[in-house]
Amino acid sequence: MERRPSRIRPLPRLWPPRFYYGWAIVWASFFISVAQVPMYGPVFSVFVKPIADDLGWSRSTITIAFTAGSLGGALLAAGVGPMLDRYGARGVMAATGVIVAAALLGVAAMSEPWHFWLAYGAARTAAVAGVSLGTTVAIANWFIRMRGRAIAIRAAGQRGGQAVVPLLILPLLLTFGWREAFAALAVSALIFVTIPSLLTIRRRPEDYGLRPDGDGRASAGEASGGVGTAGEPSWTLGEARRTRTLWALTAGMSCGIAAQIAINVHAAPHFQDKGISESLAVTIVSVFTGVAALSMAGWGALLERVHVRCASMAAMALFAAAMGVLLIADTYPLAVVFAVLFGLGTGGWTVAQMIMIPNYFGRFHAGAIKGFISPIEGVVGISGPLIAAAVFDATGRYDWAFAGAAGLFAAGFAAFYAAKPLGAPPASCGMAA
Length: 433
Known about the structure:
Layout: H1 22-35, H2 41-55, H3 59-87, H4 90-108, H5 113-142, H6 147-175, H7 178-200, H8 237-241, H9 244-273, H10 278-303, H11 308-326, H12 332-361, H13 366-381, H14 383-395, H15 399-418
Helix pairs in contact: 1-5, 1-6, 1-7, 2-3, 2-6, 2-9, 3-5, 3-13, 3-14, 4-5, 4-7, 5-6, 5-13, 6-7, 6-10, 6-12, 9-10, 9-12, 9-13, 9-14, 9-15, 10-12, 11-12, 11-15, 14-15
């Protein structure tokens, strides 16, 4: 049963009362998302070759750590999701910062593969189930009409961080080494995840006498007491599970996750294998994540005008086009073309998948529904980077792995096409959502 507050709670005093508090949630989530990027593929990929060269480990051995964290985060999300719906994300996210910091310090001190699997796996598990799901649910609860732009700001923090952090840690990597870089990232996680979470994150606007989007004061019977705003969908997990739409969305997101993470993890080492220097390969990661971050304002605005299904299909098409370039890219200019296309697709995909569940099924049970499908996405998603690593170890090339990723993006496009909106005629991709 959902927790109901016994009284209207006061907002943090430092926030100016004339501004809607939902934007405090958004901007805190932006900075928290920047701090958690070491647990995501583009930043992880920067460490793959240095660790392999230093410790003599295969790329499959290294990728197991990322795979374990992906699976762990997906499985843990099933339990965390209902907690977020009931209690909010504040405590979960604050604890996540502590766990991530401790785990990254463990990575900095590791000497055996199982140390890496355990430590980095724990860090990514906490980030996926705590920060990624937590910020998404928190923002979805505070916004409906302006959800696209709010989520886009949060997502820009994640992708912008993936563009900037590799450039910031590169001097540490080149001057000191990968261990010192991981230690520095541990400190930043503790400061920029735990503290903003405790100070800023709150459950729902109705707990504080407000309505989503800052649309006036909430009445006594609104969502904190179980009633949403007029016209707002509110599907329970049991109801959503019985729809074909949920399973089509699950298939589409699973395909997209598996393929995208494989590219995130292996793009930088692939370009290094092609003869591009380590420094230039890192800039390719920064280009596609930077393009993704810069494109998110446009994607957020678009998602307030067209159905999320249509934006998801467009992102899958951009990903497939990027794969065509990646398969022939053997020079830095071609690598940049790939990065721009992949970045545009990543921008749309990141925003769309974050608002997918609340836009289809409503915000009240979004954590539980997302938690339910996360293990499925995780099991499928972990296959992507691990299979790509195995293909490389067997053949010395990524070509077959990248061709398979292109096929997954095409399958994701088809799945989203099949995910018809609920309770209304199927939306044309030229119509407002």
